[in-house]
Amino acid sequence: MACMYPAPSKAPEILYPYIMDEMKKLFETESDPIANAANAAATLGFLLNDLNWAGFYLLKNDELVLGPFWGRPAVTRIKMGSGVCGSAAEKRETLIVPDVHQFPGHIACDLYSNSEIVIPLIKNDTLIGVLDIDSPELDRFKQIDQTYLEEIAKLILEYITF
Q1: What is the Cα gyration radius of the chain?
Q2: What is the CATH number of the domain that holds 67?
Q3: Is 21 exposed, middle or buried (0-12, 13-18, 19+ CB in 10 A)?
Q4: Which residues cross the membrane (predicted)?
Q5: Burial of 54 (C-beta count, 10 Å sphere; 0-12/13-18/19+)
Q6: d(Cα 117, Cα 83) in Å, to the nearest integer?
């Protein structure tokens, strides 16, 4: 059983490696993909500052379907190309949106979400889904978050087979 403590620092260069180490500890002791994805979402939600949602949408029959998450209830299905998640999935590239209210076609799940980062989950050139993270703060996500969260997505795909 893992015991998670508050992050040792808010500095991204300390915080993100700590998050990756904590995730590895969780993943190395469990093989179930749903349990690991749930713990990955909870780890991000618990340890990153200023979030109100972190979780997965998984590609099923050409649409994104809600997977394990941390936060308030969310939209359960998103069409490819729709909203931030569907756009990131369709483009197969990370999207950082400083103000979701300015994003054409934004899907409002939580009225408190103001910024968002979505990282496509791609394994062996196959789109698996996306890692979606929302914040109530405007312009919460920066390039450094993208860099580290893309590494976390690779770690997740290394241990979790959806």
Answers
A1: 15
A2: 3.30.450.40
A3: exposed
A4: none
A5: buried
A6: 12
pLDDT in tens, 28-54: 999 999 999 999 999 999 999 999 999
Domain count across the chain: 1
Q: Contact at 8 Å (CB) between 18 and 5?
A: no
pTM, entire model? 0.95
Q: Are 45 and 54 in contact (CB under 8 A)?
A: yes
Please measure the distance between the N-terminal and C-terminal CA atoms of the chain and give it in whole angstroms.
Answer: 22
| 107 is a domain residue | yes
d(CA 108, CA 106) in angstroms, rounded, equals 6
Domain-located, residue 148: yes
Q: 152 lies in which domain range?
A: 12-159
Distances (CA, A) of 104 to 56, 83, 130: 21, 7, 19
**Percentage of residues in the chain with pLDDT exceeding 70?**
98
Is the confidence at residue 143, as pLDDT, over 60? yes
Token representation of residue 136 = 């109530």
Residue 3: inside a domain: no
